[in-house]
Amino acid sequence: MCGEETQYDFETHIDYRVGYIEGAGQLCGVCYNQGTDREMITIPKYMIKDNSNDMLLGAAVRKYYYEHYS
């Protein structure tokens, strides 16, 4: 999120990393510890596959946000 270099190599499996978030990637310790103060959300892959155009996808993401994050 901040661009900070982490201690992990790309080849290190995610099960052996601290601060890895599926869908977001590897975070530095500071960003990872910010927890719910993140300005980003993660959406499920099916949402992208199930919405045939950008307008529908945008509506689905907004609905998901209000159902899960507010």
**What structural category characterises the helix and strand content?**
mainly alpha
Radius of gyration: 15 Å
Care to count the β-strands? 2
Please tell me the total number of domains: 2
What is the topology, as strand order, of the major beta sheet?
A: 1-2
Q: Which word captures the global form?
A: elongated
Termini Cα gap: 22 Å
Give the biggest sheet.
2 strands, antiparallel
Task: List the uncertain runs.
Answer: none
Offer a concise description of the structure.
Helices cover 37% and strands 6% of the residues. The longest helix has 15 residues, at 54-68.
Question: How is this structure best described in words?
Answer:
This protein has a two-stranded antiparallel ribbon with strand order 1-2. The two termini are 22 Å apart. By secondary structure, the chain is mainly α. 37% of the residues lie in helices and 6% in strands. The chain has two domains: 1-38, no CATH class; 40-70.
